[in-house]
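Limitations
The structure tokens in this dataset are predictions for the assembled complex, not deposited experimental models. Users should treat interface geometry with appropriate caution, especially where small molecules or nucleic acid strands are included. An illustrative entry is reproduced here so readers can see what is and is not provided.
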Amino acid sequence: MPREFPLHVAVSPLARRARNGSDISEQDRSILARLDAKSARYYPADTKLASEGAPIRYPFVIRSGWGCHSRILGDGRRQITSILLPGNLVGFGYRSPSVSLSTLCSLTPMSMIDATDLLPAWRAQRDSCGICKAISAALTEDEYFLTSHVVRLGRQTALERMAHLFLELQYRLSWTGSMDDAFVMPLTQDILGDVLGLSVVHVNRTLQYMRREQLIELSRTRLRVIDVDALTSLAEFKPPPSSSALAVGTSGGDTSDAQRRMN
Amino acid sequence: MPREFPLHVAVSPLARRARNGSDISEQDRSILARLDAKSARYYPADTKLASEGAPIRYPFVIRSGWGCHSRILGDGRRQITSILLPGNLVGFGYRSPSVSLSTLCSLTPMSMIDATDLLPAWRAQRDSCGICKAISAALTEDEYFLTSHVVRLGRQTALERMAHLFLELQYRLSWTGSMDDAFVMPLTQDILGDVLGLSVVHVNRTLQYMRREQLIELSRTRLRVIDVDALTSLAEFKPPPSSSALAVGTSGGDTSDAQRRMN
DNA sequence: CGCCGAATTGACACGGTTCAATTGAGGTGG
DNA sequence: CCACCTCAATTGAACCGTGTCAATTCGGCG
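Predicted assembly:
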């Protein structure tokens, strides 16, 4: 069951699977527990949390809801550069007073927890403590998906992009949500367009195509990936490289398939 | 003259402007000097230095030549996710045994210097020493341009992408090369296509258009940006946010213009 | 001189956009 | 419980930015 130890899970108060064992010391545990106990801050959907170039007041972990980093061009074109999910970290960049490299905003109602407490350990030690390793792993994973995003936008067709994104979301959500093949996908087609660099109209047509071909099932906000294998090979989706070479396999057959394909 | 203190310059043995003063201590200086003294490793063009998911043997700084990170799809489509220029760091990711998130290769003959010596300080201290701050600033800048790359590919037209890329290159090269408005741009149209997510043919046509409109001058490998202002507003290019709020202005009028536009 | 990779060019096809309605679904108030 | 409002989803048709294919030309270099 334990794949690795992404912070996404460790810190997320909503994490189902309380990571058992390995690198997490007692001290680490208590730090995490203290975080869990903290009360979250709530923001409605479409709230601008930080604009480009502005400092991020304090680092935080997303407890619930979806958000994004985006940049907007003069004529209104918007590109979402990354989607933020529960468990994602914000404000843990290389710099101390973290500067936002793009506009940060909520896509759905969102709650987050101040993670300032993690900062000292993170800044000081890097690899020594379990939490630091977890943070590193999480940030590395973020970077991996950012790179994938570039490939999606640069060289993949609408269908491939969409498939790839859905698989990425499923993968990332599997840490915190159910391992089910269905999940809540609260993005409007408009937003999907801004993520994938497509027009709403074409997003719509691509979705219809995917439904017609029995690749996915999507009603309102519930997305079920029907044919994981087809989508995976179609989109050439590869999960991020695991930090520890000795990463344990997963419980879900689909994911382990994907893992195998990686090597 | 000193804008800030990007490691790109500090460490680069070829750096013209030996940074005078500020955060760099004597100890830092000697570390850098030792790096400069090191002999570089040379690689011919089109050499694969690390493949996706493979560990990066040792961290290094590029001394000369251009390289890139890229990912290749099953049918041969290639997307370059970032271009590496002299002064760029590789292998300074969040993880200790740095894992390459994409294929790393040289685009021109390249030489680089083992930067293992910087690692201990970097891992341990983060913000305490001048070199660490410089490394942080450099990596933050890399991340900024990666984000910009996403926007380029997702929401900009061929012309805008090309203009934006040229301005980025000019900006990044200004640290190590001449502050001239012309510079050596050794990328073939083929490669440009793989960077910008365009076909060679269209790259060619876009270049011709830019020449016809007196926006640039490009012969073989020499690129001169004629109308910086036009390109800047056309592409909505913005230089990366400066790390210190108290960043000093630059010597070049163009850049300070751009800086102003940022805020 | 002749070769080879890179740059160019033209014709044509297609993926994706734009514009402009129309339909559908959830929420609200009467 | 239904009329109504609003926002998201859908649909059709025309248009156009880029890609593809297939030559052709150019520029070094042996």
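Some entries come with short summary sentences. For this one: The two ends of chain B are 21 Å apart (CA to CA).
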